[in-house]
Design goal:
The protein has 451 residues and is of the alpha/beta class. The chain has a single domain, classed as NAD(P)-binding Rossmann-like Domain (Rossmann fold). 52% of the residues lie in helices and 15% in strands. The protein is built from 21 helices and 13 strands. The strands form 3 sheets. The protein has a 6-stranded parallel sheet, with helices on both faces. Strands 7, 8, 9 and 10 form a 4-stranded antiparallel sheet that branches. It has a 3-stranded antiparallel sheet with strand order 11-12-13. The radius of gyration is 21 Å and the shape is globular. 49% of the residues are buried. Bound molecules: 6-O-phosphono-alpha-D-glucopyranose (G6P) and manganese (II) ion. 6-O-phosphono-alpha-D-glucopyranose (G6P) binds next to helix 14.
């Protein structure tokens, strides 16, 4: 099987390759094609992957090919992972800076920052979807690019159900809850639904019993894990559900905006500097074997340890748990999905797919995040209980904003883009929305299409 990774010079590629190195089964991936516009990043990643293959010492390490030609990368691909960052981490830092100057959130997937990032990314994602449809019409596209739900929906206009979006936060959340309850994550049925970065665990069923109420009744246990410390046991008990960690930006908006404003550096600026140093090191000529992988691993560990640090500061939640630092979310979901499709090994995974009739408040084309049964025919969302009104209102408001982003990216109209910002629940004035758009258009070359 052939896998193509768009954004193949990206930092998380070794997670995927590492997982592939552990797969020796029939029908495994035998060739990985890395596509990236930046040859330096491609070369750095090729080195890290070569170090990984050498360290693994397996005879069947997937062959790695790097290319700057998109059609060449797509031709013959069975699976395409789309993991791009339009505007790079510089762009992410700008998204944050412009928003924070207006006193609103600039996170890459939530609020004003997510809209700016979406406006830059959707035209590129649509073009890639067209290229895939033309050059690799039989391929399955797995979208990692944030904002993942919105970008998947844009690609689905062209690719229909052959594009599936993934995110590791629902899996991580489910795993943490299962562990606390003494259940094996793979045996638990996690009742989760919403949009990407905007969902809730409403139940965790083991052997026909919902075990979540037992956790919700136990304040001490609740406050012993990441989401419990972020939101506080009392708020989780009030909700009767465990929200995705990204809902912290909604439920504690004022506090998170302040924490981000007071931070020495925003997340995007931190990652921009961190990665600049990593790529410079990995690209340096004459390094000893293993050096690129060691630099990557150090950088990854630091990235994991500082994930959502400002939110944890705002909540007084302290450091992350050791068990949350282990990687194994992102690439495991991607591989499990690929395996289920390629080998028709049925699996249940929480994925970003078109709604069909799952949530009655949304139309069938709306991409949602929901448990799906996956087999050779793709991902089929399962029926779920309805969301309570407070969740329905957030989900439909944010889906409304996503639709305005999709419309603005198609029309190129600044008026449509202002509407997207202004209608977001975390942007509190049309005047702010107008200034946000002006600021973003001024600082982002990728938004010059807006007139
Ligand atoms: C989580 C989110 C992803 C995000 C990742 C890295 O896994 O679900 O969408 O890309 O964290 O976040 P970071 O802030 O390190 O880029
Ligand atoms: Mn995510």
């Amino acid at each position: 099987m052939r896998l193509t990774i768009l954004g193949g010079g990206g930092f998380r590629v070794p997670l995927v390759y590492g997982a592939l190195l552990g797969d020796h089964a029939e029908g495994r991936v035998t060739r990985v094609t890395l596509y990236d516009a930046d040859p330096g990043r491609l070369a750095a990643m090729a080195r890290v992957l070569a170090d990984q293959a050498a360290a693994a010492g397996v005879p069947d390490a997937p062959e790695v090919i790097a290319t700057k030609d998109l059609d060449e990368a797509l031709r013959g691909a069975d699976f395409v992972f789309s993991a791009l960052r339009v505007g790079g981490l510089d762009g992410r830092a700008t998204d944050e800076r412009v928003a924070l100057a207006e006193g609103v959130l600039g996170q890459e997937t939530v609020g004003a920052g997510g809209i700016a990032y979406g406006l830059r990314t959707v035209p590129v994602a649509r073009e890639i979807a067209r290229r895939v449809a033309r050059t690799a019409p039989g391929a399955w596209v797995i979208n990692f690019t944030n904002p993942a739900g919105l970008v998947t929906e844009a690609m689905a206009e062209e690719l229909g159900d052959r594009v599936i979006g993934i995110c590791d936060s629902p899996v991580g959340l489910g795993r943490r809850i299962a562990r606390l309850l003494g259940a094996r994550p793979e045996e638990a049925w996690i009742d989760y639904v919403g949009l990407n970065h905007l969902g809730w665990v409403r139940g965790l069923h083991v052997g026909g019993r919902d075990e979540l109420p037992r956790l919700l009744a136990d304040t001490e246990a609740l406050e012993s894990f990441e989401e419990g410390r972020l939101f506080g046991a009392e708020w989780l008990q009030s909700l009767g559900a465990i929200p995705n960690e990204y809902l912290h930006y909604y439920y504690f908006n004022r506090e998170t905006v302040r924490a981000y404003q007071e931070a020495r550096q925003t997340r995007g600026a931190f990652l921009r500097d961190q990665q600049r140093a990593f790529y410079a090191e990995a690209e340096r000529p004459g390094q000893r074997p293993g050096a690129a992988l060691a630099a990557w691993d150090r950088t990854r560990a630091e990235r994991e340890a500082t994930y959502m640090a400002e939110n944890r500061d705002a909540a007084g939640a302290g450091d992350r748990e050791e068990s949350d630092l282990e990687s194994g979310g992102y690439e495991k979901v991607a591989l499990a999905l690929m395996r289920a499709i390629a080998r028709d090994e049925r699996a249940t995974l929480i994925l970003n797919v078109r709604n069909r009739s799952t949530l009655s408040v949304l139309d069938p084309q709306a991409v949602i995040e929901v448990p799906c049964l996956v087999d050779a025919n793709g991902a089929h969302p399962v029926a779920v209980d309805p969301l309570p009104y407070h969740a329905v209102s957030l989900v439909s408001a944010v889906k409304g904003v996503e639709r305005e982003v999709l419309a603005a990216a198609a029309s190129g109209s600044r008026r449509d883009a202002v509407k997207a910002f202004a209608l977001h629940p975390l942007v509190d004035s049309v005047a702010v929305a107008r200034r946000l758009l002006d600021g973003y258009v001024q600082d982002h070359p990728g938004l010059s299409y807006l007139r």
